[in-house]
Amino acid sequence: MSVSSSSLPLAEIVARLRAAGCVFAEDEAELLVSTAATADATADALAAMLERRVAGEPLEHVLGWASFCGLRVHVEPGVFVPRPRTEFLIDRAVALAREVPGRPVVLDMCCGTGAMGAAVAAGLAGRVELHAADLDPAAVRCARRNLPGAHVYQGDLYDPLPPSLQGRVDILITSPPYVPSESVALLPPEARLHEPRFALDGGEDGLDVVRRVIAAAPFWLAPGGRLLVETSQNQAATTAEAVSSAGLLPRITTSQEYDATTVIGTLLLGRP
């Protein structure tokens, strides 16, 4: 039996969500119902989705997808959910990629679901050679689904990349974990309890993985290539220093609209 508003009244769904503390209960209820209907799910399946959400599971994990830059991105339980603030980095990356003649080579490092790579590719109308990498097998599985036609690798940062990619990357985008270890406990339960800690915890000052990504980036960037790193406003200066130490020209960009900070590094000369 397909789901219908009579099998589980919308008002009841809204009331359950609101009682569970969901701020946007009406919107979430509509998404649950429409997603279940699209999947031709049974009323019991919708009820199960509602129970998962009421229990505190991220809405995106319950739905099986997240909205990012106007795209519907496949998301599995236990995988990092793409954040709206990261759309600021995408805006910058697309603008810079459009300056590259021909077909720019884009690398999505610590790609998670592949949402960033997918958004950049969409912003360039598919005019891109796209590569993506992540350590987490579940994330890589999502990325391969979200990035058909792209090259998706599993492994630690740059380790799984083919040597032929070295010195060819025009745009390197990354949103690595950058939450300081002691601050992970302060994150909302949806992230703290349902997303992998290694996708959140960036070490003592939050920049352990960030520094590793930055340090090796010049060896993969093409001359004039750009590295775009998402970070926090408080970490921006330290991140920019790491970018400079790696031989890249740093620039800090911020957005009040997205409450986001991206540090951009440019390789002015050839490979170091």
User: DSSP helix count?
Assistant: 10
Strand content of the residues, in percent?
15-25%
Q: From N to C, what is the helix and strand string?
A: HHHHEEHEHEHEEHHEHEE
Main sheet characteristics: 7 strands, mixed
Provide the residue-averaged pLDDT.
93
Shape: globular
Distance between the termini: 63 Å
Task: Looking at this protein, list some descriptive labels.
272 residues; alpha/beta; two-stranded antiparallel ribbon
Please describe what this structure looks like:
- α1 (10-19) crosses α2, α5 (87-97) crosses α6 (115-123) and α9 (208-220) packs parallel to α10 (236-245).
- The chain has a seven-stranded mixed β-sheet, sandwiched between helices.
- It has helices at residues 10-19, 25-38, 43-54, 59-63, 87-97, 115-123, 137-146, 189-194, 208-220, 236-245; strands at 65-68, 71-74, 105-109, 129-134, 151-154, 169-174, 221-231, 249-255, 260-266.
- It has ten helices and nine strands.
- Helices cover 37% and strands 20% of the residues.
- The protein is α/β, with parallel strands linked by helices.
Q: Topology, pairings included?
A:
Blueprint: H1 10-19, H2 25-38, H3 43-54, H4 59-63, E1 65-68, E2 71-74, H5 87-97, E3 105-109, H6 115-123, E4 129-134, H7 137-146, E5 151-154, E6 169-174, H8 189-194, H9 208-220, E7 221-231, H10 236-245, E8 249-255, E9 260-266
Parallel strand pairs: 3-4, 3-6, 4-5, 6-7
Antiparallel strand pairs: 1-2, 7-9, 8-9
Helix pairs in contact: 1-2, 2-3, 5-6, 9-10
Brief digest:
The protein has 272 residues and is an alpha/beta fold. It contains 10 helices and 9 strands.
